[in-house]
Amino acid sequence: MPLRKLVVLSLVLIAMPALPVGQSRSPAERIAAIEAAQPAPGTAGLGTLTIAELMTRFNVPGVSIAVIHDFEIHWAKAYGIADVETGARVNPETMFQAASISKPVAAMAVLRAVQDGLFTLDTDINSILTSWKLDGGEFTKTRPVTPRMLTSHTSGLGDGFGFPGYDPSAPRPTVVQILSGNPLSNVGPIFMERPPMSLMEYSGGGVTLMQQALTDARKRPFDDIMRDTVLRPTGMNHSTYEQPIAPERDKNAARGHSRDGQSRGAKWHVYPEQAAAGLWTTPSDLARFAIEVQQSSLGTSNRVLSRTTVQEMLSPVGVGDYAVGFAIAKMGQGWYFQHGGSNWGFQCMLLAHRVKGYGLAIMTNADSGGAVMSELSRRIQAAYEWDSLAEPAPRGYKPAPKQY
Question: How far, CA to CA in Å, does 203 sit from each of 122, 150, 354?
Answer without folding.
Answer: 18, 8, 24
